[in-house]
Amino acid sequence: MPPGGRATSWPLLDSLPPEAREQVLAAARRRKYARGEAIFREGDLADNLYLIDSGICAVQVTAPGGERLTLNVLTAGGFFGELALLQPDESGRRSAAVLALVPTETLSIAASAFRGLRTTHPAVEGLVVAALAQRVAELSQRLLEAQYDGVDRRVYRRLLELCELYPANSAAATIPLSQDDLAAMVGASRPTVNQVLQKLVSRGIVTLGRRQLTVTDLPALRSLAPPAGG
């Protein structure tokens, strides 16, 4: 199975009647992206909604100091680019970039096609509300975590989330992401994240390799990662 799994459905579409859902998917174009490839960048035209079929994507923005900050990490069954659905035409611009952290496949739906579907299938209108509600909930959770949790706990949680995306075939779960990737997901510098990882290494919970991390003691890692804000 590809990293991040492969989606057989998208929760965003669950509220649609079967006919409308089929029409939405029929209007989509499949696209493939290599590891590290930008799906779109800040300032690009906001002209498509993307459904993730397989892979892992990072939503990133550029901070005033020039550093890249990761706002969210999305996997199979997720979506991004929903602001394109709010534009009256194709003149809107992206406020964030989306990067494929691993080989990724998406289904993209042009905003123009979506507007046509809203006319023929009024139920499709509800997708906009559902998409925005889900995104607000996700960003609120990240904000809560950033305000109340230190880097250590954020590293533990991201590692546990990644272990779910890369399930263990044995006693260990190997995550094919670099420390730079993890640092972007945590919202901290690489040296700071490396300090946390070295503590885990000394406790026998994690081993480090070239562009990969291996969690060797999942129960011990879980014991270090209480719920966000806890």
Tell me about this structure.
It is built from seven helices and eleven strands. The model has no long low-confidence stretch (mean pLDDT 83). The protein is α+β, with helices and mostly antiparallel strands and 230 residues long. The radius of gyration is 19 Å and the shape is elongated. Strand 4 (56-62) and strand 5 form a beta hairpin.
Task: Briefly say what this structure is.
The protein has 230 residues and is of the alpha+beta class. It contains seven helices and eleven strands.
What features would you highlight for this structure?
230 residues, 11 strands, elongated, four-stranded antiparallel sheet, single chain
Write the element-wise H/E pattern from the N-terminal end onward. HEEEEEEEEHHHEHHEEH
Structural class: alpha+beta
Q: How many angstroms separate the termini?
A: 33 Å
Q: Total strand count, please?
A: 11
Radius of gyration: 19 Å
Inertia-based shape: elongated
- Taking pLDDT < 50 over at least 5 consecutive residues as the criterion, the unreliable ranges are none
Strands of the biggest beta sheet: in what spatial order? 1-8-3-6
Provide the residue-averaged pLDDT.
83
Strand content: 15-25%
Largest sheet: 4 strands, antiparallel
Helix content: 25-40%
- Per DSSP, the total helix count is 7
Topology:
Blueprint: H1 18-26, E1 29-33, E2 38-40, E3 48-54, E4 56-62, E5 68-75, E6 79-80, E7 97-100, E8 104-110, H2 111-120, H3 125-148, H4 151-165, E9 173-175, H5 179-186, H6 190-202, E10 206-209, E11 212-215, H7 218-223
Antiparallel strand pairs: 1-8, 2-7, 3-6, 3-8, 4-5, 4-7, 9-11, 10-11
Helix pairs in contact: 4-5, 5-6
